[in-house]
Amino acid sequence: MKRKGIIIVVSGFSGAGKGTIMKALTAKYDDYALSISATTRDPRPGEENGREYFFVSNEEFEKLIKENGLIEHAGYVNHYYGTPRKFVEDKLSQGIDVILEIEIQGALQIKEQYQDAVLLFVMPPSAAELRNRLKGRGTETDEVIAQRLQRARDEAVGIENYDYIVINDNLDRAVEQVHEIIQSAHMAPSRNQEFINTIRNELNEL
Question: Domains in the chain, please, with CATH?
Answer without folding.
Answer: 7-35+96-205 (3.40.50.300)
